[in-house]
Amino acid sequence: MKGNYVIGVDGGNSKTDYFLFDLSGTLVDHIRSGTCSHEQFKDSYAEAYRVMNEQITLLLSRNGLSMEDVATGAFGLAGADIPVQKRNLNEVVERIGFTTYALDNDSFLGIKVGSEKGYGICSINGSGVCTGGISPSGQRLQVGGVGSELSGDEGGGFYLSRRVIRAIYDSFYRLAPETSMTAPAMELIGVSNKESFMDYALEQLITRKLPFTGLVTVLFEAAESGDPVASAIVDHSARQLAYSTVGCISHLDFNEEPVDIVMAGSVWVKAASPVMRDRYKQYVAELTGRECNFILLQEPPAAGAVVWALELAHGGPLSAELRKKIIDALQ
């Protein structure tokens, strides 16, 4: 295999990290730039190519390198959700000059960095949700992640905050029960009367100023205190994410050993309340009927791209020491 370096790319909807490592697992260079997602550009894949090629060329050239020096690459990309998107993004990566590489949805990066085995399930619950799975044989499957309730994407900060708004509106005008979320949510939105509630909420939703994190915090605190409306919202989302996780497990060739389930994303990792995490774990246990190891991801997901690229370069799983060296370099 040509080259003594690997490139790992973690491409989200707002920012992208490009990492250059050598084959010994030493960090050489790093660039953070804006999104590379084709979904965010008017010119779609053409612009995604331009942006990624520009940044990767810069990453290499300022270190006196070219694509001839790159052994492998790994790309975890937002917007790599369905086969046609992945085919088009493969073409982008090959046009840049990669011949040996891995490319998939960014949910798979959580598995590579969170599980020492290098396989398992990653449940992302951040602004949106997605589930990715890698089996011991290397089979991969993504469940959901297309931003639609059609595929069970009924979780994440955007969805949960809208459910809070809906519950309060229902209590005002649609004969639904009152909820303790009303007063703190109205304070967050900055509205003092029910007549203006939806006007303010919609305006902030359209302008992307709705306090998503605050509303999710209100939801979890109310659920923990026994509010039945909040509890029902949390329960529904926890169950939906569990369905995606267990569905992913059941469609991959896992053996009888315990399955590592990596939990990533701000709602899973940063929420002070454990109420949704606990219910999710409970439903997964009930639905799968097998032992699972739940791992709350504390490491940067971008490390998964580097681990994956080095696995390709070395022809198999990395040692625990090498994985730790990569993760420590990105902390």
Automatic annotation (TrEMBL):
Source species, domain of life: Bacteria
Annotated ranges, domain ATPase BadF/BadG/BcrA/BcrD type: 7-309
One function term, GO molecular function aspect: kinase activity
Keywords assigned: Kinase, Transferase
InterPro entries for the chain: ATPase_BadF (IPR002731), ATPase_NBD (IPR043129), Euk-type_GlcNAc_Kinase (IPR052519)
Pfam families tied to this protein: BcrAD_BadFG
Nucleotidyltransferase is among the record's keywords: no
Record has Transferase as a keyword: yes
Annotated PANTHER family: N-ACETYL-D-GLUCOSAMINE KINASE
Protein name: N-acetylglucosamine kinase
